[in-house]
Design brief:
The protein contains 4 helices and 6 strands; from the N terminus they run αβββββααβα. With 128 residues, the chain is α+β, with helices and mostly antiparallel strands. It has a 6-stranded antiparallel sheet with strand order 1-2-3-4-5-6. α1 crosses α2. The protein starts with a helix and ends with a helix.
Length: 128
């Protein structure tokens, strides 16, 4: 499946899960953490690998950023697996489960999102 078809499959899966766009970025609101998801490519070639760029923004840090995942307090990349619809469902399920700062902090303590970039304000909020 080429990049264009994978992108279309991801968009269709997000729409099927009723995930809305905000200023061109997929937005998953939680109780006090909003997740942004953008789809990024490793290059322009039709066969280039795709990845989800995910960002978490806790409401305690103020108004949500306009730039999507890249402007969030937590930023990480998650590779897009071979089956785009299943990968999209998996990322929506996982991020939906991390809708609070406490859930996010517990996941980080368990080793999830260990390679994520986390700013100091969010680290303090999570007690890291």
């Amino acid at each position: 499946m080429d990049q264009k078809a994978r992108r279309a499959a991801v968009a269709k899966a997000f729409r099927a899960r009723k995930v809305a766009l905000r200023k061109g970025h997929w937005r998953l609101p939680g109780d006090d953490v909003v997740w942004y998801v953008d789809l990024r490519s490793d290059g322009p070639a039709p066969s280039a690998a795709l990845r989800f760029e995910i960002g978490a923004w806790p409401s305690a840090l103020g108004p949500e950023p306009d730039g999507g995942a890249v402007d969030c307090a937590l930023l990480a990349d998650v590779p897009l697996e071979e089956e785009p619809a299943a990968a999209t469902d998996a990322i929506v399920d996982r991020l939906s489960a991390l809708g609070t700062v406490d859930a996010l902090a517990a996941a980080r303590r368990a080793g999830e999102l260990a390679d994520a970039h986390v700013d100091q304000d969010l680290r303090e909020l999570m007690g890291e």
